[in-house]
Amino acid sequence: MSDVPMLGDEEKYLREALGRIAYLLNKSGEEKPDLPQRKQQKPKTVGKCENCSKSILDSQPHYNTDDRLYHKDCFNCGVCNVPISGKHYFLEGTLHCEKDFKKYYQPVCGRSGCQKRIEDDLFVRARTGKYHAECFTCSMCALPLASIDNGKLIQQNFVIRNKKPYCIEHGVQVDGRVCFSCEQPITDTKAYETVSRSGQLLDLHTKCFTCHTCGISIENQEEISYLLKDNKIFCAKHGNRTCNSCSRPIANAKGHTEIAGQKYHPECTPKCTVCNNTVKSNVTHVDGGLVCSNCQ
């Protein structure tokens, strides 16, 4: 009987190690269970571009102006297509650079010999239109009525007559407004009064609206009342319009009663000395009193 060789400790250890390696290799070939995959986040958007209507990602360079969004490459003038870097205007659904805005939308100068667009921010506004400062001159003498000094618009006094601007001096000539009291031109359009004489309207300086006798200003009276005589103005007191009964002035030209050539306040109308009734007409003077027609 032959002897079977015994495995040594080293050989035994080696066999065990090889068996373990084989086991691990077999195990690694098994199918592994599926693990949950992380969801990919969608890129964040801030809105749609006003120009190209495409979405704008939060990570993309963009402009937000006048509550409208633009890609950086879409922020161009809708007229000349040049990228906008300065002032801009959104009109009629289109973005405009400053140059094209002034070219197509700034007002036209009202001077007949100009009629060009006003590109400067400083210009004259008048009832007849808008003007370049240098174009706003007197229509008669060409006196400059406006100028620009140190970035400020400076305007002179002017008047508009027949839809044209005039300096004060020539505006008066065109208008023909003359004070009927002093017969001098009325140059200040805010310092004159208009009075009526027999239905005719007459103009006069406010400073001339005074009583010819006492010099009191009619305009500053609590109740404006005056009398015109020979192109002269009189207050109620000195216009010979006083109550024959109380001797006080009759302020209202129509608010009085005239009896036997004498004027009375309505409340001062005299009564008949016989019957004590208010007299109206056909009266007779008796011993300093008035007697009505019924008691005569």
- Helix and strand element order: HEEEEEEHEEEEEEHEEEEEEEE
Overall residue-averaged pLDDT value: 77
Can you count the helices? 3
Give, in spatial order, the strands making up the sheet with the most strands. Answer: 1-2
Task: Write down the overall geometry.
Answer: elongated
- Count every beta strand, where a strand is a DSSP E run of 2 or more residues: 20
Give the terminus-to-terminus CA distance: 194 Å
For the largest beta-sheet, the strand count, sense and barrel status come to:
2 strands, antiparallel
Helical content stands at 10-25%
State the oligomer: single chain
Taking pLDDT < 50 over at least 5 consecutive residues as the criterion, the unreliable ranges are 1-5
User: Radius of gyration from the CA trace?
Assistant: 51 Å
* Percent in strands: 25-35%
Structural class: alpha+beta
Structure description:
By secondary structure, the chain is of the alpha+beta class. Helix content is 12%, strand content 26%. It has three helices and 20 strands. The strands form ten sheets. A two-stranded antiparallel sheet has the order 1-2. Strand 5 (88-91) and strand 6 (94-97) form a beta hairpin. The termini are far apart. Mean pLDDT is 77; it is low at 1-5.
Keywords:
single chain, 296 residues, alpha+beta, two-stranded antiparallel sheet, two-stranded antiparallel ribbon, elongated, disordered N terminus
